[in-house]
Amino acid sequence: MTISAPVPVRTGERWPMRLPEPRGEVSGLVIERLRGDVASALDPAVAAAAVRRSADLLDDDDVQLALFLLYELHYGGLDGVDDALEWEPEVLAFRRELERGYEAALRALIPQPHATRDVPEALFALVEAADDGPGLSSWVETDATAEQVREVMVHRSIYTLKEADPHSWAIPRLHGRAKSALVEIQADEYGGGRPERLHAEIFAKTMRELDLDDRYGAYADHVPALVYASMNLMSLLGLQRRLRGAIAGHLAAYEMTSSIPCRAYANGFRRLGLGDEAADYFDEHVEADAVHEQLAARDLAGALADDEPDLADDILFGASACLTVDGRLWASVRAAFEAGGSALRKPLDEARP
Amino acid sequence: MTGAGAGAPSVVACPNGPLIVRGDVEIRDERGELLDPHRRTVALCRCGASAIRPFCDGSHKLTGFRTVRPEREPAVVYDELTRLEPGPRGRR
User: Are the Cβ atoms of B3 and A184 closer than 8 angstroms?
Assistant: First the structure.
């Protein structure tokens, strides 16, 4: 099943991403500031006002894109943007307002779970309870067109081309068994020492198989706000030590809802006549995530809750947040497909040169 | 479920789930063919429903495979929301 033909890892060509088009006042301001236009200093009051007037922050194109771009300074960076802005107090103060708003919106949306016995058992119960609707993966398995499959890949690309990175922020913040478990999972995500088996790299190969642009952010103007909400959730939880329990819980929920959908995705790819190379990413995740779900729920989240009992609620909050935000994203994509339309903001053939 | 030392094999049974195997072990299929597990830590199917046996593919959750008796009380309880209703949820 392994297809380990060497794949060129063209990191220099894939990052940094190009700045996208603005989606409103806040993202417009951020893009101008990142470009180095000193006339548009970032005023935190503007961010706070945008948060206050947003009717639905998760699905707010302007706020979520702005937050995503500010976080991207910590990942692969942005083309033409001064790397020093990553730690510029003015930029951080503006981002903090967006983050406060997003965290408050999540806390208002998600009922705080509590474990009645132990955290791993609670995680399995949470995941089972969230599995309450037809998923996108079953649509891909039996109904999706080839063009819809390409759209799914585009939606996934914002996270998956840097798969596992947001959870790696937690490594120095954990200790003992929890740290060991997280590193064990991440080592597998990062290919176990084989660059061509980096999960992000396998995903990039699948994008190329589908004639999609594998440069990071190539479809930044296409994807809807919920894609950024999903990515921003991970960055929000991953970049703050006080939320280390929540990022551990997020990873657990992510891994616990992956194996079975990935099998459905792989089946769908083969139904459409796509070969092993294209299905490789999903085949890999059926097997890998069946391991990771046990490691993440028991050795990572369970050990963390044993070592730091005060984090138990945060672990479950992070898991619920993952299920809620990603569930909403993929349900919206499925709904668009069922209606016979596109889930993207503009057609795929309008990719930038 | 702490990790085994380098090379020393360990097998851990997960409640209602697979066997987690670490360490230097040879895994062969029913015809005696050596299998490449692709990773250092593997999960072996214990419920019989996996499509990629002997490896686990998560199917135990679909078949209701149990190794421990279900508790009467729920494993998780929730605070009531005071402001908003949860949004629609779905599967990936």
Answer: yes
| Residue B3 predicted with pLDDT over 50 | no
Residues 39-58 of B with CB under 8 A from A: 39-43, 51-52, 55-58
Domain containing A262 equals 119-350
Q: Is residue A142 domain-shared with residue A263, that is, in the same domain?
A: yes
What's the whole-number average pLDDT of chain A?
A: 94
SS3 readout for B47-91: CCCCCCCCECCCCHHHHCCCCCCCCCCCCEEECCCCCCCCCCCCC
Question: CB–CB of B57 and A290 under 8 A?
Answer: yes
Q: What is the ipTM, given to two decimal places?
A: 0.85
Domain with B42, as residue range(s), is: 8-68
Residue A332 falls inside a structural domain: yes
Q: Are both A146 and A231 inside the same structural domain?
A: yes
Residues 6+ apart with CB under 8 A from A38: none
Q: Is residue A230 part of a domain?
A: yes
Q: Is residue B40 part of a domain?
A: yes
Model confidence at B4: pLDDT above 80: no
